[in-house]
Amino acid sequence: MQNNLASPIGIFDSGYGGLTVFREIEQLMPNYDYIYLGDNARVPYGNRSFETVHEFTWQCVKKLFKLGCPLVILACNTASAKALRTIQQRDLPDYDSNRRVLGVIRPTTEVIGEYTKTRHVGIFATKGTVLSQSYVIEIEKFFPDIHVHQLACPMWVPLVENNEHLGPGADYFVKKYIDELLNQSPEIDAIILACTHYPLLRDKIQQYLPPHIRLISQGQIVAQKLNDYLKRHTEMEARLSQSGSHQFYTTDDPTDFDQKAALFLGRTISSSHLDLFI
Question: Which pTM does this prediction carry?
Answer without folding.
Answer: 0.94
